[in-house]
Amino acid sequence: MSGGPLRRATDAVLQAARLRGRGGQGGVRPPLPTPVSLARVGNDLARRGYRFRTDDDGDITGTWDGNRFWFLLLGEESEILQVRGRWAGTVPESARPAVLQACNDWNRERIWPKVYTRPEGGGLALYTEVSVDLEHGATDSQLAETVSCGLVTAAQFFASVGPLTDPSAPS
């Protein structure tokens, strides 16, 4: 077994790990995680060509597909990045049971985003949240993936509940 295929494969993996630890072949090191900040989130959004602004609380906010989103840093050390979305529509009272069931089904069947309702202005508002603990930092790629996850999964949820709130939609 000392020279078998499993041993050779293990040796190859270990050798590759050693090379990465020394800077890899040609001295190229993989990117290291760096602390997350709203400036980095803003840089990621700007790189994609997205329009956004900073609100009075210092949070980044913008509108995607007509829905409002916020990019927040939460936690004692501002280590939790949260992408929060609010659906632009309103839930009519007649659609309340179906929308509540859709929220429950979504949360049971999917990891992201967390979805919930909240009473606002005499109606029911729909929210989504993707929260990731980035206590040890994130690479630019990891940060971009978190932002994308928050935006894309929220858009999927909002698209799925839209027909439930339209009384003219076929059943």
UniProtKB/TrEMBL annotation:
Full protein name:
Sensory transduction regulator
CDD domains, alphabetized: YbjN_AmyR-like (cd17511)
Looking up InterPro entries in the UniProt record yields:
Put_sensory_transdc_reg_YbjN (IPR019660)
Top-level division of the source organism's lineage: Bacteria
